Amino acid sequence: MSAFASICSRLVAAASGSGSSTSGATTQHYISEDKAEEAYIDGDLEPPKELHLPLRPAEHGYHPNPYTRDAQLGFELLDDALGPHQPWEDHGVTSDGVHVRMVPAPQPLLPLMYGKTYVPNVSAIQVLACIHVASFRLIWDSRIGSAGIIQRFSHYWHHFYIVWRGIMHIYAPRDAIGVQATRSYGPDGQLQYRPTADSQVIDICWTNVDANIAPQEDKVRAHIILGSYRIEQAGDGCNVTFIGQASLAEKGPAYIVRRIATEQCETIGRLRTAVEHFGVPPYILDEREILVMQLQQFLAETRKTTLRAHVSQPGSFTLVLDKKRMYPSGVTISLVEGEGASSLSLRENADRLELSVDAAGVGKEFCIEFEPRDKEPEPSAGTGWW
Fold first, then answer.
1. Which parts pass through the membrane (predicted)?
2. Would you state the pLDDT for residue 13?
3. Residue 354 contacts by C-beta under 8 Å, 6 or more apart in sequence?
4. On the CB side of 77, how many CA atoms lie within 13 Å of its CA?
5. I need a labelling partner for 310 at 20 to 30 A (CA). Which of 18, 60, 303, 367 fits?
């Protein structure tokens, strides 16, 4: 039995009330509300914690990561799905140029989903930025209603909360708690410590973790088996493959489940369109780990970006700009503030901002906002192809 089949059979059994579900190092017990209340009274379980999405998810430095085994399982599932033994059903190529395949699964599971397309004129790390920056991802991933970071473990690894949209009164919104992780390979095929400008293959994955945080009001708690993208440099662009599967926790109308699965595969076609219309959001190259990132926010209507970070050591880092598409006339710095702002020096150079922080800024926070120099009038509420 494959890794996917093993996990899926346990989730189906759990949803039908016949047991518990085990996912790698994390064991999730599915029990009724009455039984849960008895367990809390008897002291067998801790009451669920409140959800807290902080403005500074790594306020005192990156947190120790308790979910490395969960992330490793996610990568193993991705490798398994892309192997030769999955019984894919071919659903053809969509009008957006996405090749869709699926492996059927019994409800409340979504099918194992596969979507692949080619995004021209981008590097692997640029595609990673389009996926990693949540406020940019909301432009092209139409299933996501909102998302936030609970804790940061490094620049690209974090503990997150996510909400998927409902469909009128027919299908309730789903929420989930998980971990985001990345792995990357350089030109020599060797595993890298972190994604870099010369990465040739980058994997980014999300998988469920048991954080004992209750579902939020009017939401049904879903279980992310795997949500992942493999980004492979191919000529002047990248092949991007989506692999995903989740348990929706409750059964729904079959046509709704089919629609959700198809839309999720097709989102990478919207990713390609977003790159063509907007370009790539700004991203940071920080080889020496000068920064502890807190927040990056991108506003599609104005192309304004806000970065909040604090300084772990003196040195230099780079903020890369897409001047071919997003910022053809460069950018204007509209705000620099925070205790660490006075220790920051900045210079615009070709397709990037070069930033340096001196020793006086160590341990202090700064916030930078910048917007396109060719700023357009504020759009109306209905503006936007998305």
1. none
2. 55
3. 316, 318, 346, 347, 348
4. 33
5. 303
